[in-house]
Amino acid sequence: MIITYAGIKDFRNLSEIEIIPDPKYNIISGLNAQGKTNLLEALWIMSGCKSFRASREKDYISFSGNRMTVEINILDNIREQKIRTEIIRGNNNVKNITLNGVKQKGTKSLFDVFRCIAFTPDDVEIIKGSPEKRRNFIDMASSQLNPASVTHLNRHNVIMNQRNALLKEIANSNVNPDILAVIDRQTAEEGAFISHMRYEYVRKINRICSDLYRTLSGGNETLELEYKSNVYKSEDLKKPVNREFTGIYFRKLQETAGYDIKTGSTHTGVNRDEILIKINGLNTREYASQGQIKSTALVMKLAQAEIFMEKSDEAPVIFLDDVMGELDENRQKFIFDIIKNMQVFITTCNESALLPEVKGKIFRIHNGKLIGK
Question: Which helix (H) or strand (E) holds 225?
Fold first, then answer.
């Protein structure tokens, strides 16, 4: 899969940019705060994923404009497709998405069209941040393999908001407590699916991460990822998602219902899961060095790319946002060897810091505009 054309207008500080990318390497060069990351972000959101900056959609529109548009053409193994996103400033910030000229109801359909993986300096938060950071990474990576997972994740979020609101109503004696069982059956249906989804993905990524990290560390260190469910025991997770599997989840919710009512929040379920990451048996969040944390985050993203390749037999597009300049030659070679068959977009302040064999197109940005070579 490659991007064959990109047009961006009034996205953050990018006034109007058009590029025809190289099918291999694309270097986005410029000083800080000139728009390099903005360009990658504009391309990234065309995958249907939320911004890797966790920013609000209304912030995409430039200060001087009332409308932003991004258009890209994607060439996969079958055909070329066109995605267009437009956001208009206003009370509701109208958002229009078209795929091959057909208006879409939301971003879900884009998951099946444009697949990409972004490496950013903030990826270290997957390792040292809160459990939510690790859950979000696993959920997003899983959803890229199976876009139907997005429906389950969104539905679970809605149900959880309803359940927590209901808990407060029950605590205030405004509704019958028996109603909780009804919503708990819905919670269990979605939670069981998400639990199994996370278990399966962590099992896959652990296998690849272990091999990659062993190579990166010269065989001196071992990396292990483990899914710790808040509901299921490890032996339970090997079972299929059926009535028995969902029943375990439902009973757990009912067991803690009394405490949930007292506190007004849900303490059982996938919202409390953890993904343990260990180097030589020690929790990376507590004991890993900065170098180990960066290496682990890098390996997890590379493993994500490999899993995608295994599943779809098609390469995702790779975005490397300001992560190559600080890596030594050996680590750069390690990365490029894995992504050598993928289209890559690299942002950098220093073109000479990249490996000399990384040759392709160079796009230099200054004040949100492309400048001559």
Answer: strand 223-228
**Ramachandran angles phi, psi of 73, nearest 5°:** -110, 130
Name the pTM for this structure.
0.86
DSSP letter, residue 356: T
* Window from 7-21, 63-77, 122-136, 316-330 with minimum mean pLDDT: 316-330
Own/partner pairs, 60-66, CB within 8 angstroms, 24+ separation: 60/11, 60/12, 60/87, 61/10, 61/11, 61/87, 61/89, 62/10, 62/11, 62/12, 62/13, 62/14, 62/15, 64/10, 65/10, 65/89
**pLDDT single digits (tens) 239-295:** 999 999 999 999 999 999 999 999 999 999 999 999 999 999 999 999 988 888 988
Q: How far is CA 90 from the centre of its chain?
A: 28
Maximal C-alpha separation, the chain: 70
Task: Please tell me the distance from the alpha carbon of residue 273 to that of residue 138, in angstroms, as a whole number.
Answer: 11
